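User: Okay, second chain of the day. Same drill as before: sequence in, structure tokens out.
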Amino acid sequence: MNIEEYISSGVLEAYAAGILSDLERKEVEDTLVQYPALRTELLAIEQSQEKFLQKVAITPHGSVKEKLFASLDNRDAGAKSIPLATHTNNSLIWKYAVAASLSLAVVTSYLAYSYRERWITSVISLNNLIAQNQQIAQDYNVVNNRINQIEKDVQVLNDPSFQRVVMAGTANAPEAKAFVYWNEESKEVYLSLQSMRELSQENQYQLWAIVDGKPVDAGVFDSNLAGLLKMKDIGKGAGAFAVTIEPRGGKTSPTLETMQVVGTVVKG
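Assistant: Same drill. Structure tokens below.
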């Protein structure tokens, strides 16, 4: 006989619970006589069941005891005692089963709530991680674009075909200074600010190229310029560049009274 298989079959638990038939109980009892190990296992099962029943037991109201003794006193002294039928055992078993089911339901509900909270926490953590990754990707794109812009600026600064024009501050802004990089062949113009004061939202700076003594619009810009700013193309013949303050969006002709910086193109 395989002791382990016999124990795992659950027959000992059924025997301890009193739900076996008379024939089945007789078979179990005969087996217990032959195998001491099974008796030890049965004892452990009975102790375990007793502990469980003690946990789920409900203490009766105090009046139950009084009613019980009163009922016993009223019984006929000559009446025969009626032994408890199997039905009583079955009723107890069903009560225990119901109590066990309720306990299982409570445990299951707790586990379901616990796992739900863990799931919600995991979802929140995942969303936070996704948001962080998106922010990292955005930051990377910003840095990458900035690096690309710097590389382009360096190419312009190192290109000998671009002429550097220094624009110094006028009496309106003595501390102001800016640079123009102009390629007469490609007509490209880039602007770099070194020191230009901040303007109100209603105004902007406007760059002018002086061609044959006449101002030519080269575009508007704000004082928060970083690096080189691509301005409007200017063809051949520019003799100077200047910056004035104009209404936001610029004008078709400069307001000379607001000129901030001016610089002459050095020929040769």
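Residues 81-88 have pLDDT under 50 and may be disordered.

User: Thanks, on to the next one.
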